[in-house]
Amino acid sequence: MNIYFACSITGGRDFEPVYQAIIAALLADGHTVPTAHLADSGIKAMEAAIGSREVYERDVAWIRDCNVLVAEVSTPSHGVGYEVAYALSIGKPVLCIHHADRTISKMLSGNSHPNLQVNRYQDAGQAVEMIRSFLEKAAVQVPGDCEDNH
Question: Does residue 118 fall inside a structural domain?
Answer without folding.
Answer: yes
